[in-house]
Amino acid sequence: MSPDGKRLALTVGGGNGGSIWTYDLTGAAQPLNLTSGPGRSGELPVWRPDGSQIALMWRGPEWSMASVPTDGSTLNPTLTVENTNESFPQAWSTDGKVLLYQVMNITGGTDLMAFDPTSKKSEPWLQTNFTTAVRSSTRRDRR
After folding, report:
1. Among 19, 87, 111, 128, which is least packed, fewest CB within 10 Å?
2. 99 near 87, Cβ under 8 Å?
3. 23 falls in which pLDDT band (50, 70, 90)?
4. pLDDT > 60? residue 130
5. Which of 18-32, 37-51, 67-81, 127-141 has maximum average pLDDT?
6. Would you call 56 exposed, middle or buried from its count of C-beta atoms within 10 A (0-12, 13-18, 19+)?
7. Which distant-in-sequence residues (6+ apart) come within 8 Å of 73 by Cβ?
8. What pTM value is reported for the model?
9. Which segment of 6-10, 47-51, 128-132 scores lowest on mean pLDDT?
C-alpha cells in the first residue's frame, strides 16, 4: 500500500516472471506495469515513504535489489544492491534515507542490512546465523 493509501503495488505473475504493477484505488488512473520487458521480473515491492519509488527484488542476469519510479517514467529499474546472494527489500526508514533489506549469508542464515541510497553503501544492521521469520514471505517459499 502506498504511503498515502491511494495506490497498491503488487507482483503479478510468478515463477521468476512476475512484474510489479501499481493500481490506483481511487479509480483515477489505469493500472501501471513498472517492470515490463523480456527476461526481467520484479518481486516484493516496498514503497518509499514519499511514494516516489518502489524498492524491489529484481531479476536481470542475477537477482539483485533495485528501485523504480512509481510514475512509470522508466521501466528500467536502477540497481541499488548488486549481490551474489538474494537481497529482499523489507522497509524504508520514515525519512526515506535508509532501506532495510534481508540477505542470505554464507552460513545459510539471513542478515538485515541498512542501505543508504545517497552513498550507495550498505552496512550490517543485524547479523545472525539463523534464518529470520521474514524469509517465509520470499518467492522460494511460495511454491
Report:
1. 128
2. no
3. very high
4. yes
5. 18-32
6. buried
7. none
8. 0.79
9. 128-132
Residue 143 has pLDDT above 70, yes or no: no
CA torsion, points 6, 11, 12, 17, in degrees to nearest 10?
150
Strand-pair partners of 92:
99
Please give the radius of gyration of the chain, using alpha carbons only, rounded to the nearest integer. 15
Do you know the residue count of the chain? Answer: 143
- Cα separation of 81 and 63, whole Å? 10
Nearest C-alpha neighbor of 79 from the set 101, 63, 98? 63
Collapsed DSSP state (helix, strand, coil) of residue 142: helix
Q: Which strands make up the sheet holding 63-69, listed edge to edge?
A: 41-47, 53-59, 63-69, 78-81
C-alpha cell at 8: 497498491
CB 104 within 8 A of CB 60: no
Q: In this predicted structure, what is the pLDDT of residue 135?
A: 41
- Short-list 98, 100, 71, CA closest to 87: 100
Hey, what CATH topology would domain 7-137 get? Neuraminidase (2.120.10)
